[in-house]
Amino acid sequence: MATPDASSSALRQRTTAKEEPAQGDSPSQPAISTEDRINVSLLDILRMVLGGLLLSTLLSYFITNTFFWSHTPPTVTSQIARLRRYIRGPIYLTDAELARYDGTDPILPVYLAINASIYDVSAGRTFYGPGGSYHFFAGKDATRAFVTGCFDQDLTYDLRGVEEMFLPVDSPEYDVGMTKGEIKKRRERERREAKKQVRGAVEHWEGFFGRSGKYFFVGRVMGREGWEGRVERRGLCEKAKELRPKRKREGEEGGEEGK
Predict the structure, then answer these.
(1) 244: closest CA among 206, 197, 209?
(2) What is the pTM of this model?
(3) The three-state (H, E, C) secondary structure of 38-82, written as one string
(4) Of residues 66 and 62, which shows the higher confidence score?
């Protein structure tokens, strides 16, 4: 027969065995340390920051056509017109058709062309529309005027001979000691460089209108086949003549040394 002390001892052992382990002591559910909680929080913050930057970049590209908000946002109307252009694709106009888009009709957009590329400049209607400072560019391809700066007489796409404005003014004193062959080679080299400058000037303005965020490309001018035979070749305007550089001797600063 068991004594009272033995019965009490057995009861305490059974009670202790039935006690549940403390929370977090179970091997199947390890406790999350404070350090782990901090690491998870930092990761979430990093994801939010990167997501915000990505969203800002996408919005910037859509609104300003740049990734870092480097241009003044165009108007809502301009963005709608840009979206319509993307949907319908590029347009093709003759020079006569392009003339209708000079801003005189308030319903039509305002277009101008450079090197046969047409740009929508409706966002700058105050400048390119009637009464604007640059209205003479609207509705036409005035590539030559963009290069020469002669806005009163060079409103044409004909670039023939424009490179002459970048050719040094000839002076017999700089030909002394040179053979005819050397003079010929010098002139050929200078003309190549001058044509390169013309191309650079045209590309500059194409980039200005094409990447401004405010204006945008819409299409091309067509129907100019054989125009060289129909358009009389023109000479340099007076302003372009005045801009011609002065020839310098070999070795002088800005001269021909190293060419």
Answers:
(1) 197
(2) 0.64
(3) HHHHHHHHHHHHHHHHHHHHHHHHHHHCCCCCCCCCCCHHHHHHH
(4) 62
